[in-house]
Amino acid sequence: MSKIMMNNNISPLDPTAATPFYRQIYDRFRGAITSGLLKPGDRIPSARALTKELGLARGTIDAAYALLAAEGYIQARGQAGTVVTPGLKLRPIAGALPQPGSNLPQAGFRADSILPFQMGLPALDKFPRKIWARLGARCIRAMQPSDMAHPAVYGLPALRAEIAAYLQVSRGINCSPAQVFVTSGYRHTIELISQALLKAGDRVWLEDPGYPPTRELLGHMHIVAVSVPVDRDGISVAEGIKAAPRARAAIVTPGHQSPLGVSLSLPRRLALLDWATQNKAWIIEDDYDSEYRYISRPLPALKSLDRDGRVLYSGTFSKVLFPGIRLAYLVVPQMQVERFEQIAQIFTGGSPQLTQAIVTAFITEGHFARHIQRMRKLYAERREAATAGLQNVLGQYVRFDELPGGMHLILRLQDQRSDRQLAARMREAGLYGEALSQWTMGGDGASALLLGFTNIDSRITAENLGKRILKLI
Predict the structure, then answer these.
(1) DSSP string, 212-229
(2) Which of the chain's termini has less CB crowding within 10 Å, N or C?
(3) CB within 8 A of 467, min separation 6: which ones?
(4) Taking 50 as the threshold, does the pLDDT of residue 2 lie above it?
């Protein structure tokens, strides 16, 4: 019954209505079934349970259920309970609730899909699910009543310590566990930073092209996004100073610029740090997929060069483990720890402690490091296979950018073809593609496709998918 009771589109029982209670209950269930909110085979509450929940006479509930059963909507299964009739096929009635996902956006990231060339998805077919399940079962067995209370809003202490140790070794970041705040994802991280350090009307440098959700987040918080161009050396600090010298912050992806894949050069890193120090501005380093670099070792984090406490470092488990885990982390300067603790107490509910415990065990036992090593090798192979397969089919229509790392390819379209139109046609055909022009603040950037390759398992697969794209060009 929770699916129905919690849905705001279905009103509670109305004692003043001319329609009797049994009919209101009937209408409620019928609407949920015909709209797809309740699906064939779903179990519904027993008459006894519903009687207690609604505080009505048992005969009222029985009358509603009898009518639903007579019309074929539900079936009684004895001790197995009452279920929506298996195999039931109905056309939605007028005014029925919309099907979940029926109004999916035609552009942007789709968190509920796994499509060929899907951006931001690791190789889910190679995730060590058996190890994860074993660790999960062990964590559940070890769970105590204290573990079932509200989670710590800063993150599980053991996980914070493991993240601090990992960053020290892998990214050259010297931080204490107290500086690490566990969040539910990149958006939560940016929101936390904005609540702690920024205010409405502040100006913030954004890379152009750059990650579209960042612009949307800042816009909702009434923070002014300042477009700063990116070239082969990364964000142009000189252009940023020219456009907004007194900006309060800069959000950058220095290790692997999103989406162009370039790395921020050392002179510009130093210039960016110098600007932030002189203007008491903040640098937000989004190090979203630095683990995956194929031509050399991962570059040190910009945070490792920070001597004045101006850099906030943002990382995520989504690209290394899987997006559904909804765990990320933020490293704040030592002088800002107390401020972030205060803000977290107000705005953060904490991430599920069980999930954090499983991740902690995954790291502690060495699975995390081994998984990264395996994925780095696998992605290098899949990138080569995807590039070769697509090049063989689409070579005369596209030009491939050479990227040192990351999880996606950039295909530059020839002959002034529209990347937005092609991306839209790909979605209609069950493929995924991001239009590079939609990542620019003016919307008029170069025409190119962004294609994820991490779930493309062979050159043959890439060629077959390339043939499907060719039909759309």
Answers:
(1) HHHHHHHHHTTPEEEEEE
(2) C
(3) 393
(4) no
